[in-house]
């Protein structure tokens, strides 16, 4: 029986990933300006809820539509790629297996066209 990532890792892959990723993003000089004035604790909660869904857990996400939430930010492809690097590093810090981290990154990459300004 194969288990989903939510059951396999529990909060490590949801709130842990959100915590670790934002710890990295907030010290990244290219990405941190996007978060000036943002309630980071609330954002971490939203991302943890999003990761719960992505990893096979219950749909608890109550945040705004992803396209709407990012439309005003002018996020470039380069910014998005920096975020992907931080997600991978967070997964590594949390001892998430490489294939499982790749599955999470693939899910996030699926949102690129809703986040990146062309």
E-strand count:
0
Rounded to an integer in angstroms, the radius of gyration calculated over CA atoms is 14 Å
Unreliable runs, pLDDT <50, ≥5 residues? none
- SSE succession: HHHHHHH
**By CATH's scheme, which homologous superfamily applies?**
Globins
**Main sheet characteristics:** none
Strand fraction equals under 5%
| Count of structural domains | 1
Assign the CATH class. Mainly Alpha
Question: Could you tell me the mean pLDDT?
Answer: 92
Q: State the separation between the terminal residues, measured CA to CA.
A: 42 Å
> Can you tell me the CATH topology?
Globin-like
What portion of residues is helical?
Answer: 55-70%
SSE diagram, text form:
Layout: H1 5-9, H2 15-25, H3 40-54, H4 66-70, H5 77-93, H6 98-109, H7 112-115
Helix pairs in contact: 2-3, 2-5, 5-6
Which tags fit this structure?
Globin-like, mainly alpha, 118 residues, 7 helices
Can you tell me about this structure?
The protein has 118 residues and is mainly α. The chain has a single domain, classed as Globins (Globin-like, Orthogonal Bundle), CATH 1.10.490.10. The chain is 58% helix and 0% strand. The protein has helices at residues 5-9, 15-25, 40-54, 66-70, 77-93, 98-109, 112-115.
Short structural summary:
This protein is mainly α and 118 residues long.
């Amino acid at each position: 029986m194969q288990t989903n990532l939510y059951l396999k890792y529990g909060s490590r892959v949801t709130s842990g990933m959100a915590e670790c990723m934002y710890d990295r993003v907030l010290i990244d000089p290219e990405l941190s300006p996007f978060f000036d004035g943002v309630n980071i604790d609330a954002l971490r909660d939203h991302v943890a809820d999003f990761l719960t869904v992505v990893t096979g857990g219950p749909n608890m996400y109550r945040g705004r539509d992803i396209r709407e939430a990012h439309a005003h930010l002018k996020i470039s492809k380069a910014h998005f790629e920096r975020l992907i690097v931080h997600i991978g590093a967070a997964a590594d810090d949390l001892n998430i297996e490489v294939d499982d981290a790749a599955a999470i990154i693939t899910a996030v990459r699926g949102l690129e066209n809703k986040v990146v300004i062309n």
